[in-house]
Amino acid sequence: MTTQTWIITGASRGFGRALAESALAAGDRVVAAVRRPESVADLEAEYPDDCLIATFDARDVAAAADLVRATLDRFGQLDVLVNNAGRAVVGAVEEVGDAQLRELMELHLFGPAALVRAALPPMRERGTGTIVQMSSQGGRTSFPGVSAYSASKFALEGWSEALAGEVAPFGIRVMLVEPSRFRTGFNGGDVLEFAEPSATYRDVLAGVRADMAGTDGRQEGDPARAAEIIVSLAHADEVPLRLPLGREAVERISRAYRQGLDEVEQWAETARSADFEGVSASVRPI
Fold this sequence. Notes:
Layout: E1 5-9, H1 14-25, E2 29-34, H2 41-46, E3 51-55, H3 64-75, E4 80-83, E5 89-90, H4 98-126, E6 129-134, H5 147-167, E7 172-179, E8 193-194, H6 206-214, H7 223-234, E9 242-245, H8 247-266, H9 268-272
Parallel strand pairs: 1-2, 1-4, 2-3, 4-6, 5-8, 6-7, 7-9
Keywords: Oxidoreductase
Pfam families: adh_short
Organism: Herbidospora galbida
């Protein structure tokens, strides 16, 4: 198996940590991009030749080029970029303020976009590369209480779908990973943020809040197994554009697709009636 060099953001815990461990165990090289270098010091100690720790805040778009440059200086190439860093805010639309919404957009869209732009030139020069965007089942379907989180993941997915078509001619693949619930610490009290509940939505979202707060440590998804799948796909000849991970993700995303198609078909005639009479259907390049 060809040795690959990875950049993994948010590698201190959860999916990022599991991916770093799996890639290193497979003989790959990893740049662990974290805010707290001490959180991955053990990986560097165990793999001194193959692991580089980089202090990095995924929201800092200005630091993206330096991270890619440090990777190339140390290992000479970049094969896999994983935009993994992330978190969530739970609250109704009226409870989540602009600052919280902007922070999630910076973390889940603007930061990853800057890092992808920095990574593309060296990948394009070599004619190969894989960009792994850690999205969520919440990037394909949403529900009350997670509007801000889903908005940022929906944005990442739309941006990445266009990206995939743009870079495919240069041998670069894009994979959106859409996990269900995994034991990553995502639902931990020090990660998951709850907006201040209002009297208006306290009862409406009581079940959602309790569910999100009470699931930590009981999720059915195994991060180590998920990481093995992703590492294996990064070395494979083909990757899916979208990869739901976990039984719940497969079931909920499938249901969302079916419901969406049913609704389109229900209102199809009404929708078609908005066109001018006698005008030919548009022809698009893609």
